Amino acid sequence: MEKNSDKILALLTEAYPNVKPALNFRNPYETLIATMLSAQSTDKQVNKVTPKLFNDFPTVEALASSTPEIVYPYVKSCGFKSKAKNIVLAAQKIMSDFNGKVPDNHKDLTSLPGVGIKTADVVLSHAFNVPAIAVDTHVFRVSNRLKLADADTVEKTRAQLMELIPKADWSAMHLRLIEHGRQICKARNPLCEECPLKELCPEYKNNYKKIGEL
Q: Please, what's the b/e burial string for 119-138 (b: 16 or more CB within 10 A of its CB; e: otherwise)?
């Protein structure tokens, strides 16, 4: 690991020592469904809809017994109708193929409708305490700006971060990168002058710092 990367990871740990997921869930079933709903939506919006959804469909079996048409009004504010379809189909597949239990491995999780690598990583990390790095837009942006990764795709970014970061730290560091992206390293108008990492950040040195010195 490069010296700068060591320092960056240490500073992220110092800045965000007690990170927790922004989504609300209590078990693997809720973790899976909430994460599926969060795609192209906000965690805040998902947290608004899941209490009633999980109250009326408290188990995989209950959701699998429903239909997308019934479920859609519950999750409408989180986006596309396909989300309602996918969470019902995923629940049905869990009932038919996995004895009603949410899978605890990548292969089986990604076999579920609507579940990609990122969603599987989140479920493994937060529901089963399996080390994982889920690369969302925040993780992709922040890690590449800081040159913890140097990649043009989510897949390459994920692979580089998994190689760089000690496995025991994967889950926590993924949350720290998300938090840094939300609070400081925003997509537009990043708060560089407030950033504890600015002197280690190539993006700041090459762009924002120069602008400030003009």
A: bbbbbbbbbeebbbbbbbeb
Asked if 23 contacts 47 with a C-beta cutoff of 8 angstroms, the reply is yes
pTM here is: 0.89
Q: Which residues of the chain carry a pLDDT beneath 70?
A: 1-3, 208-214
Q: How far is CA 17 from the centre of its chain?
A: 18
pLDDT score of 3? 67
Report d(CA 169, CA 173) in Å as an integer.
Answer: 6
Q: How far apart are CA 131 and CA 121, in angstroms?
A: 8
Q: What token pair was written down for 85?
A: 């379809």
Q: Active-site positions?
A: 118, 136
Contacts of 81 (CB under 8 A, 6+ apart): 68, 72
